[in-house]
Amino acid sequence: MENKLEAFWVHAINAARLDPDTAFSGQKELTALCPVAFAGGDTEAEADDFLEAVVSGKKKVFCSYIPSYEMEGVPYPERGDMAILCDGRGNPRALLVNECSEKIPFQEITEEIARAAGEESLASWQEKYRKIFRAECERQGREFSEKDSVLIEHIKAIYVA
């Protein structure tokens, strides 16, 4: 798998016309640091659907629960961060870039954000993410609150294989 990611990364750098000599996250050379790779969903089919939604432009934002970053001591994704999105079989398929991030309380998420997240409506977004965030909180031994903030990452696919 690691060789697939490295090959994808090198090809994506060239195809997306990124400057391979640019420092990135403290590295001396862009090619030295392959971004994190992930697949969306818990099953092969869910990962494939997630990939299709991102690549087609239906899903333009990722939503994550701010207290989880704080509890785990993980830095928030920032503008310019890149990631590799894989299909359900773990094959790297798209290079994504974070165009900007914003923190919004769960209860203030708008219809516009819900649709940018690939949902049909604000109600469907709320139902889906209440379930996701409650399960996340349960695993961490704490309570979910709709007053807590959600990190909204505006993403763009800059290369698709």
Q: How would you describe this protein?
A:
There is one protein chain. It is globular, with a radius of gyration of 16 Å. The model is unreliable at 23-31 (pLDDT under 50). Helices cover 37% and strands 24% of the residues. It has helices spanning 2-15, 44-56, 66-72, 111-116, 122-140; strands at 36-38, 61-65, 82-86, 92-105, 149-160. Strands 1-3-4-5-2 form a five-stranded mixed beta sheet. 24% of the residues are buried. The chain is α+β, with helices and mostly antiparallel strands. The two termini are 16 Å apart. It has five helices and five strands; from the N terminus they run H-E-H-E-H-E-E-H-H-E.
Compose a concise summary of this entry.
The protein is an alpha+beta fold. Helices cover 37% and strands 24% of the residues.
List the defining traits of the structure above.
161 residues; alpha+beta; 5-stranded mixed sheet; 5 strands
Question: Helix and strand layout, with pairings?
Answer:
Elements: H1 2-15, E1 36-38, H2 44-56, E2 61-65, H3 66-72, E3 82-86, E4 92-105, H4 111-116, H5 122-140, E5 149-160
How many extended strands?
A: 5
The residue fraction in helices comes out at: 25-40%
Evaluate the radius of gyration.
Answer: 16 Å
Strand content: 15-25%
Low-pLDDT residue spans: 23-31
**Spatial order of the strands in the main sheet?**
1-3-4-5-2
